[in-house]
Model the fold of this input.
Amino acid sequence: MSERIEINTEYIPLGQFLKLSNIVESGGMVKIFLAEFDVYVNGEREQRRGRKLYLGDVVEIPEFGVFEVVREE
Done:
């Protein structure tokens, strides 16, 4: 089961997503986090903090869980 992360925009950059989901505390930590941990977007390894995540995208971080981008209600 995935955790639902709600956004109210068309997309969210991966770096902001990591902050919103409380995986990292600040934007400065994102680059380091992506270098040290495996992050998968829709099953593909991703290291770009600017990667745009759209509704329905699934982010999997083995040490932290599975997250789905959904529309804020």
Remarks:
- The helical segments are 14-20, 27-36.
- The two ends are 20 Å apart (CA to CA).
- Residues 5 and 69 are 5 Å apart (CA to CA).
- Strands lie at 3-7, 11-13, 40-41, 44-45, 52-54, 58-61, 65-71.
